[in-house]
Amino acid sequence: METPLQLSVVASYLNKLRFKEQINERVTWDSKQWKYSPGILAQLLVLLPFVSANKKVSLSRIHEAYAGIDLELLVGEPIDPATLNDDMFGRVLDRIFEVGCSSLFSSIALSVRLTFNLPENFILHSDTTSHVLYGDYECDAGEKPHIKITPGYSKQKRDDLNQIMTGAVTDGDGLILYSKVLDGNTADCSYNNLVIDQLREIFGDGFKKYKYIADSKLLNKYNVEKLFKGSHPIQFISRIPENFHKKLAEKARNLAFAEDNWTYLGPCCSRPGKTSTEYWSYAITESIYGHPCTIHVYRSSEREQFIEKKVDKAKDELKSLLQELEKREFACEPDALAEKERFLKEHLKSLIYPELVLVCKEEVKRPVGRPAKNPKPHKIIRSWKIQTVDIKRNEEIIEKRKRKAATFSLLTNIPQEEMGSADVLITYKGQGKVEQNFKILKEPLMAATIFLEKDTRIAALMTMLYFSALLHGILRLLTHIELEKLSEPPRINSNNRPLIRPTSDTMIWLLSLFRIRTSKEGYEIFTVVSNRRDQAPLLLKLTQFDINFIGPC
User: Fold this and answer.
1) Are 72 and 37 in contact (CB under 8 A)?
2) Bridge pairing between strands 278-288 and 291-300
3) What separation in angstroms does the CA of 129 have from each of 52, 185, 188, 212, 231?
4) Residue 69 · residue 81 · CB < 8 Å
């Protein structure tokens, strides 16, 4: 039997976390009634996305996905893949839902830093995403659905399909600490309200050490009041929406430009590159619903250039419209004047506008044939056309658009002496880490589409997939830590490029080039890629793989 190396690496992480044991301790089951324990079945579900990245695997085909793989190496017990079936996995999903998906996930996820000897991190990034659902679903007779599978705002642009939503909270390194399966039409502001209560329950008094980061949907009066509730307000950072608190963002932006006292921050963020956007900041202290906060207004060079590109594009589009306009002829001056005024009004608030004039064209119409002895006066036919004199920039509107496009404002209750504008920006930019986990969840083997028929099983399966995403985060973080210990990045990436802050997908690809062969003599790590045969020890070191997990090689 041959086992992909990436499966063994992530299985060793689950082994360190005592994943199987914790599942078996939490769920209700009878060893006499179960061929395989709930912990084993759950571990096989969590490992499933790491088998292959090229195709989806339904619950009824898991036995095919694991065919030829040494499952004893992965779960610690001999298992014939042919004996695995959808009933087994359906039953374990039922048990997982019964014990509480979110609490089960957090109880294991919160042990990651201690288990892997990682330093504490007190940043919390929170966000939601949608998951498309195909087909119908059912719930037990007489019961209301636990999750409303319904059309909603689809972040996958599939408003025609039913969906569920999930929310997640990660730490500053992108490790998921909390996950929640939500109704398909859950608003982000409602999710934030819910998760604040959940995090207070999870962390208790320790929550005061954390900083909660979320997008603009966090900010409404009800949520702000909840953040400040109690003797220890929750420290937060969020982007200010345009319609929040009497257009606070617009007022702060206008004040920043009026005073013109920007602080240059330089490129963002912690590892700026040659093309990184430069930022300037301006800080204002403001009372929000009676609570002291700081507004950090940021101006970026990139967005100002973006508006100039829009000006150029608008000019090209206007030229095309003017060419068509100039082809038209009008039989009377009032009609031409009316069309000219209509066109100018249409572009009154545009980035650019034309200067137009009316041109009168006279044509003498002579009678056909010989001139008469007493000829009548020649008939003069007049027509009017609209002509372009110039195309001008609407500087006032361009400047207003630049100000709005080039700036954004963050609201926080963290004192400036504790966290300045640069650190607030860098911390908020970390929101991309939770979004990266959503991208992982929507890879082909994971939860881009869901086919289960029971809402409770959907919730439990999503929780298992969040464990898979957590393993991605562990793999990425451990690799980055080990790479920083090296004097220079090793050239083991594709095309012999240096391996610099790789994604988890890159590491899984590198590991997938190696396999573990099981024989009576023990285990052998090998690859058919000849120029990579000496890279196995380095990969095992980078991923902190404990070779004792597989035994003698």
Assistant:
1) no
2) antiparallel
3) 24, 11, 9, 18, 32
4) yes
Residues 454 and 147: their CA atoms lie apart, in Å, by 10
pTM of the model: 0.85
Is 262 contained in some domain? no
Count of the separate structural domains present in the chain: 2
3-state DSSP call for residue 308? Answer: helix
What beta strand segments (E) does 320-442 contain? 352-365, 379-393, 407-412
Q: Which of these, 542, 488, 486, 489, lies nearest to 514 by C-alpha position?
A: 542
Q: Cα–Cα–Cα angle for 513, 461, 56, nearest 5°? A: 40
DSSP 263: E
Residue pair 26/104 in contact (Cβ under 8 Å)? The answer is: yes
pLDDT tens series, the chain, 553 aa? 889 999 999 999 999 999 999 999 999 988 888 999 999 999 999 999 898 755 556 556 788 889 999 999 999 999 999 999 888 888 999 999 999 999 999 999 999 999 999 999 999 999 999 888 765 555 555 567 788 888 766 665 666 678 889 999 999 999 999 999 998 888 999 999 999 999 999 999 999 999 999 999 999 999 999 999 988 899 999 999 999 999 999 999 999 999 999 999 988 765 656 667 889 999 999 999 999 999 999 998 777 778 888 999 999 999 999 999 999 999 999 999 999 999 999 998 899 999 999 999 888 777 776 776 777 777 788 899 999 999 999 999 998 888 888 899 999 999 999 999 999 999 999 999 998 888 888 764 444 444 567 888 889 999 999 999 999 999 999 999 999 999 999 999 988 899 999 999 999 999 999 999 888 777 889 998 888 989 999 999 999 998 888 765 5
Within a domain: residue 497? yes
Is the CB of residue 235 less than 8 Å from the CB of residue 450? no
Measure the CA–CA gap between 403 and 224, rounded to whole angstroms. Answer: 27
The span from the CA of 447 to the CA of 74, in Å, is 23
In this structure, the answer to whether residues 7 and 91 fall within a common structural domain is: yes
Q: How far apart are the first and last CA of the chain?
A: 14
Q: d(Cα 292, Cα 290) in Å, to the nearest integer?
A: 7
H or E stretch including 196? helix 188-203
Residue with token string 């562990």: 474
Range of the domain at 333: 320-394
Q: Which of the 8 DSSP states describes residue 178? A: E
**CA–CA dist 254, 243 (Å, integer):** 15
Q: Which residue has the tokens 């070779």?
A: 547
Radius of gyration of the chain (CA): 32
Task: Say whether both 22 and 83 belong to one domain.
Answer: yes
Q: Is residue 237 part of a domain?
A: no
